Amino acid sequence: MKKIKIAVLPGDGIGPEVTWQAIKALDAVGDRFGHYFEYCFADVGAIAIDKTGSPLPDLTLEACMNADAVLFGAIGDPKYDNDPNAKVRPEQGLLALRKGLGLYANIRPVTTYSNLLHLSPLKENKVKDVDLVIYRELTGGIYFGEKGRAADDSSAFDTCLYKRDEIERISHLAFQHARQRRNKVTLVDKANVLENSRLWRHVVTELHTKEYSDVELDYMFVDNAAMQLIQWPKQFDVVLTGNMFGDILSDEASVIAGSMGLLPSASIGLHTSMFEPIHGSYPQAAGSDIANPMAAILSAAMLLDSLELFEEAKVIREAVTDLLEKGIGTPELSPRITYGTTQIGDTIAHMIAEPDFVIKEDQVNEGTSTII
Ligand code: IPM
Ligand code: MG
Fold first, then answer.
1. Above 60 in pLDDT, residue 367?
2. Which ligand has the shortest distance to the CA of 265?
3. Which one is the CATH code of 1-102+270-372: 3.60.21.10, 3.30.450.20, 3.40.718.10, 3.40.50.11740?
4. Of 76-85, 244-253, 335-344, which range is least confident?
5. What residues have CB less than 8 Å from 54, skipping those under 6 apart?
6. Residue whose CA is closest, atom 10 of ligand 1?
7. How confident is the model at residue 361, as a pLDDT?
């Protein structure tokens, strides 16, 4: 029996409703395996600005620091996106959280499900069996370098600075993860142009020679990597890259699977680790019970992995896969049987808590079904 303290930051838009389904999945894991999850809810993003004026109130950061893990929903609101002069923005909350928790590695696995290949914009033979993971550096580079703008708006600059130790710590994680997978790391950079990329190559090569020579290491320029991800994504195992390239490539890679609603992520570093679906706040869908909660639920599985509760995590993943294989999902998947956000969450929770649970399809009325 484990007591696990989780800081829950539901955030904006569909964030609260998908996060709620992830909590149900965790509680079901608790029932089945005898763990106790204690949740501490806190605000971040637009909702936090509305309530306190700050996108990351001190109390929220404190709650995260005091927890074993952070479960994050989504942030963002059109009222800020459409206002270029807004002084505070929800996104600042996320960046401050990353910095505050020292979350230097963002880990985004991209896998595909055999019966959803047709949803991918790529041809089925290219996406079948894709299994890659992106290690994106998350607290350095151009996102956090010195920046400035001339008073007369005639120029502006952003600096991309990387220190050796920032490169080393994420590279260790990437190499170690590769050893548990297909043993290959691809370092993505722009070393033909940028000095900081040349430092990445130098440091990663050195680390490879010293400690990880059993892992295959190759290098790819980011422009080529953007193309290769579309042309033959199966060639990638672990992709290691800096903050900005990782931001762009991870969004590109996310469409391979066919739905953003299926992909989880983890951010780990110096303090508490954080787990979040890769999709955004999707404000148009908020409150409509149509958002896919699977990415949030799979993020809860990554959370359990990080606490070394591997069997528990596996049970969550199996429930999601099982549901997808039965052709059950939220509307964007155009499934055989359409469920709403809450129904998916309830069903997955049942499947986790009761191993013998059977979905009675004959009792399922498309769109409005209840499952038991
Ligand atoms: C992401 C997002 C963020 C980023 C934004 C919301 C600041 O795009 O998590 O990838 O650019 O890192
Ligand atoms: Mg992004």
1. no
2. 1
3. 3.40.718.10
4. 76-85
5. 48, 88, 93
6. 247
7. 67
